[in-house]
């Protein structure tokens, strides 16, 4: 069987040749393989032709036939190929008639075995073992020829399937790469469009009030100062937005571990809540920090961790209901490896459709953003980024009209 494998491997190399005689080297190799099977073939007596049928349509053209190899018929009726294919058996002939053979075949070949090469519905062609002398064929030659034809057809089928598979895979890979590029391109374009849009509002306010301030300057200094205050607020808003953008767009280059220190979570939360007490008061909201897990420590960058909780608590205040007494509860819990910090409000809540999007840059569920102040929609994307950079996760549970709870999970410092 090993020798047949070797032969069929060599044969697949001939795939694209319509009618060829093997080179001397290959001829010798095949003779050697035959010799290994115990059948003696004299070199001088042996020739070898691989007649490859083309695809259906080409076959019709080549044979000027209306039929295909699947309905075997040859205009050269009784020709070696059509007979072998019709019977799906090796065809032996030692009475070569010119009219049944192509070209000058009959001049050189006095007897031959034509082996149909077919597998399932696929008929690939014929393999013709040619002999220069008239000879008889032994029964083991018949067996060998049949096996050879089958092996060759199977090899070609597998080879073709593998080729198809490779092509499909290459196409898939190419499509995937193109899709990725397009998605990246789309996200860039969206980012630029969103950024431009976000900058336009404060800039047009600044322009408007600058004009007013310039006009009011001579007559009314107080009014002009009020305008300047508004301009200043917008400039602060703009510069905050720029620093947020810088942070989240260049985040790949930030190495948090460089600035890592041991941080006491409850201290950070208490401190952050205190910073926001005045803003909360204005909105009639109280903040409660439950610090029963007092000594939980994490490792992280203080500046970023404070920023993370500042954003979450600020949001909890912002989205607490207007004209209603509100309460924000901050809890800390621990599992074996993590600190869990939850920030719960009783505010306007987030709809189910919005929840998957709120961590995206510039996403705001309240598109008009009139009722809850001016917000860029960058806060949560930054919160998510900071959490992930510290090896943590963030999740949210919310119900429209009832409130939201954000839970941040951060790895505890080892060997506390
Ligand atoms: P923004 O600057 O608009 O607050 P964020 O990224 O911080 O941007 O939040 C994105 C959106 O998620 C907000 O516009 C808001 O619609 C929603 N959101 C965030 N936190 C809360 C909350 N605690 N309660 C209700 N909605 C919230």
Description of the structure:
The protein has 416 residues and is α+β, with helices and mostly antiparallel strands. The chain has ten helices and twelve strands. It has a five-stranded antiparallel sheet, sandwiched between helices. Strands 7-9-10-12-11 form a five-stranded mixed sheet, covered by helices on one side. Strands 6-8 form a two-stranded antiparallel sheet. A hairpin with a 3-residue loop joins strand 11 (393-399) and strand 12. It is elongated. The structure holds adenosine-5'-diphosphate. The site of adenosine-5'-diphosphate has 21 residues, from helix 9 and helix 10.
Q: How does the SSE layout of this entry go?
A:
Blueprint lengths: L1 H11 L6 E3 L2 H13 L9 E7 L3 H8 L16 H8 L3 E3 L11 H4 L2 E9 L2 E10 L7 H78 L4 H29 L11 E4 H18 L2 E6 L6 E4 L1 H17 L7 E9 L3 E7 L34 H11 L3 E7 L3 E9 L5
Parallel strand pairs: 7-9
Antiparallel strand pairs: 1-2, 2-5, 3-4, 4-5, 6-8, 9-10, 10-12, 11-12
The site of adenosine-5'-diphosphate has 21 residues, from helix 9 and helix 10.
Radius of gyration: 41 Å
Number of strands: 12
Order of helices and strands: HEHEHHEHEEHHEHEEHEEHEE
List cofactors, ions and other ligands: adenosine-5'-diphosphate
Distance between the termini: 68 Å
């Amino acid at each position: 069987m090993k020798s047949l494998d070797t032969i069929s491997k060599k044969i697949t190399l001939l795939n694209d040749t319509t009618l060829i005689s093997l080179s001397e080297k290959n001829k010798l190799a095949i003779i050697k393989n035959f010799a290994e099977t115990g059948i003696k073939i004299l070199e001088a007596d042996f020739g070898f032709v691989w007649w490859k049928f083309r695809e259906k349509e080409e076959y019709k053209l080549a044979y000027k036939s209306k039929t295909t190899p699947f309905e075997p018929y040859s205009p050269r009726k009784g020709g070696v190929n059509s007979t072998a294919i019709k019977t799906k058996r090796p065809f032996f002939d030692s009475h070569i008639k010119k009219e049944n053979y192509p070209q000058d075949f009959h001049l050189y070949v006095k007897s031959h075995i034509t082996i149909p090469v077919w597998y399932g519905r696929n008929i690939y062609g014929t393999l013709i073992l040619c002999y220069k002398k008239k000879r008889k064929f032994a029964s083991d030659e018949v067996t060998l020829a049949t096996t050879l034809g089958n092996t060759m057809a199977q090899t070609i089928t597998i080879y073709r399937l593998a080729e198809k598979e490779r092509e499909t895979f290459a196409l898939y890979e190419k499509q995937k790469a193109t899709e990725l590029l397009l998605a990246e391109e789309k996200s860039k374009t969206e980012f630029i469009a969103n950024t431009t849009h976000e900058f336009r509002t404060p800039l047009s306010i600044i322009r408007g009030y600058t004009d007013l301030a310039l006009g009011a300057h001579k007559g009314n200094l107080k009014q002009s100062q009020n305008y300047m205050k508004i301009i200043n607020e917008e400039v602060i808003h703009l510069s905050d937005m720029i620093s947020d953008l810088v942070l989240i767009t260049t985040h790949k280059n930030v190495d948090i571990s460089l600035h890592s220190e041991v941080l006491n979570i409850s201290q950070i939360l208490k401190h952050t809540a205190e910073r926001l007490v005045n803003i909360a008061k204005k909105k009639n909201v109280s903040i409660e920090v439950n610090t029963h897990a007092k000594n939980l420590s994490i490792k992280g960058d203080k500046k970023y961790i404070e920023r993370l909780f500042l954003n979450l608590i600020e949001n909890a205040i912002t989205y607490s209901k207007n004209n209603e007494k509100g309460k924000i509860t901050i809890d800390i819990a621990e599992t074996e490896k993590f600190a869990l910090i939850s920030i719960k409000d009783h505010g306007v809540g987030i709809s189910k459709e919005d929840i998957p999007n709120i961590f995206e840059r510039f996403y705001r569920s309240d598109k008009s953003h009139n009722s809850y102040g001016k917000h860029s929609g960058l806060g949560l994307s930054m919160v998510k980024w900071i959490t992930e950079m510290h090896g943590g996760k963030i999740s949210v549970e919310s119900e429209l009209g009832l409130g939201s709870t954000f839970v941040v999970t951060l790895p505890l410092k080892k060997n506390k």
